[in-house]
Amino acid sequence: MSRSSAVAMKYADYTFRDKNPVKRWLQRRRLASAVRALDRLPHPPEAICDFGGGNGELCKLLSERFPKAKLICYEPSSDMLSEAQENLRAVSGVEIMQDLRFVAPGSVDIVFCLEVFEHLPDEETGEAFRTITTLLKPQGILIVGVPVEVGIPALYKGLFRMMRGYGSFYAGVTNIVRSCLGDPPTDRPIAEIAPGRGYCYEHMGFDYRRFKERLDGTFRLQRIAASPFTWLSPRLMPEVYFVAVRPGDASRRT
User: Which tens digits make up the pLDDT trace of 51-72?
Assistant: First the structure.
């Protein structure tokens, strides 16, 4: 999704209400995959944060799964924050916020961060890691979902994007071929989603393999799963999920 299109449309219009039925199904499926990552919890969580909650759709699912948990929908973008407020109006037990300063450090059991890190430049990625580390309890769980934009997925995603916006950065032949060969472009266009907050609107150029290395340098990576079909390799699937744990002493930093 290009910047101009993203600004003109609501988040749900190009995700959960996209005109393409396959994309709509994948969007719903990715949320279900994220929630399913909690099947092995030893005890119900007391507090969960959706970090970069978009329009709040994940919090709807979490409120059904964990009705007694405190839910935090954190969304720094004013436009998306408004969408979350509208979407979660009838959902009880969810705090929607644009600032995490009032959340006590070390008070959150689980942080979800879905379709966020592929949009963040290096500096913003490091800042997000530090914030999440501060939020989580020792041994708290981080669940990250990011797209696979290299190899075979880059091919079928590239063909789909070419049908929608041929010639743009994310739908150009050269960049698609490079991504298919495992060498995605590094000159990603960076804009601002809020004052002082860098943002990459396109997924093209994001490399989940490099992100995995950085994630494992800050948190303790426990599990990797593909989506929508967990029994297949991330090398074939459009999305990958990382389940990680905050080290107990919080001494590791990015």
Answer: 999 999 999 999 999 999 999 9
